[in-house]
Design brief:
The chain has 333 residues and is α+β, with helices and mostly antiparallel strands. 35% of the residues lie in helices and 26% in strands. It has two domains: 160 residues, Aminopeptidase; 129 residues, 3-Layer(aba) Sandwich (Aminopeptidase), CATH 3.40.630. Strands 1, 2, 3, 4, 5, 6, 7, 8, 9, 10, 11 and 12 form a twelve-stranded mixed β-sheet that branches. The protein starts with a helix and ends in an 8-residue tail after the last helix.
Length: 333
């Protein structure tokens, strides 16, 4: 595992810099500053070096589940996967470069019972994982690109989205906020309203939100009415390339106010001053996907790769076979 001194050294390795061309491998969620926030410093990585320079790295978090070792990504970290130092040259040569480095990284991973990560969407080619015995599932997110021209983006929205935003503007005020506890409260309320417990430890979200804002990579906004009722709140994190809608929540008592639509529109306008693309950070839930789609973004697939040890894989197979007999859904990796 990476110790604190090594992480401080790595913090200077990959501060957000333009990563163009075929590699497209950089996202802020791979960056040491983010990983330190998301894990409180409890993360590791494997890397490949050339003449003392890091040319590839694959970060991960080690978790223990029921006695099994799992290498995965931290909570509130939607994407990870390998990073490659950008190169130039013919496309075929760059593919070979990535293939060989990915294989080398995978060979250096510590022994585990399960490896499972969601790859950054621009890492569309998972062939080296396949060749190393990994499985894959496909997920989807939505991206709004070229968002600096606000008027052009507004025209791209669907009629329903523009209608919700205009409706909310008549009664709702949007304002940046430093109230991280309020964000957590309303995020948790979203789950409680569905009869579900919040899926993550509150301390993690507090640490991430506070740290992202402290470093200038996060922004909380909340929507409230004239009586001071908070209808909804969201947190986005961003760098020079991409702004991500990380978490959000709303109060069901004000579901029809259009507050969430107005918050996202405000976030898109803000992101247009800092980033090139707005990432809705995906959802495979029908109602959420339909809502995101009303902003007329581009559908973007991503790969979730996984590999199990023999014992873990056998137990999963038995568990899913038993679940099928009683009509329950399979356990998804």
């Amino acid at each position: 595992m990476a110790d604190r001194d090594e992480q401080r050294q790595n913090a200077n390795l990959q501060q957000p810099t333009q990563d163009t061309g075929l590699s497209g491998s950089y996202c802020l969620f791979q960056d040491p500053w983010w990983l330190n926030l998301a894990t409180n410093g409890d993360w590791g990585e494997v890397k490949v070096e050339n003449s003392g320079n890091i040319i590839a790295r694959l970060p991960f978090q080690l978790k223990r589940r029921y006695g099994f070792k799992v290498l995965t990504q931290p909570h509130f970290t939607p994407y990870m996967g390998p990073w490659f130092r950008p190169t130039s040259g013919k496309e075929t040569r760059q593919w070979s470069y990535q293939y060989s480095l990915t294989s080398e990284l995978l060979s250096r991973l510590p022994r585990c019972d399960l490896f499972c990560q969601t790859l950054w969407p621009e890492l569309a080619n998972w062939l080296p994982f396949y060749w190393s015995g990994f499985g894959q599932t496909t997920g989807y997110t939505y991206w709004l690109t070229n968002i600096q021209d606000v008027q052009a983006v507004w025209k791209r929205l669907t009629t329903s989205a523009r209608g919700e935003i205009r409706k909310a503007e008549r009664t709702i005020t949007i304002a940046p906020s430093n109230d991280v506890d309020r964000l957590c409260d309303i995020y948790e309320r979203t789950f409680f309203q569905q009869g579900k417990p919040a899926p993550y430890n509150r301390k993690i979200l507090l640490r991430i939100a506070e740290g992202a804002m402290r470093t200038g990579h996060g922004r909380i906004t909340q929507a409230q009415d004239k009586e001071g009722n908070v209808h909804a709140a969201i947190l986005i994190v961003f760098d020079h390339r991409m702004a991500h809608y990380l978490v959000g929540g709303s109060d069901n008592r004000f579901r029809s106010s259009g507050a969430v639509s107005l918050l996202i529109w405000d976030a898109i306008r803000f992101a247009g001053q800092h980033s090139l693309t707005f990432d809705f950070e995906g959802s495979m839930v029908t109602n959420i996907e339909r809502f995101f789609r009303s902003f007329n973004p581009t559908l973007v697939p991503y790969n979730r790769v996984y590999k199990t040890g023999n014992v873990f894989g056998s137990l999963m197979h038995l568990r899913n076979a038993a679940a099928a007999l009683i009509g329950k859904p399979p356990l998804r990796i």
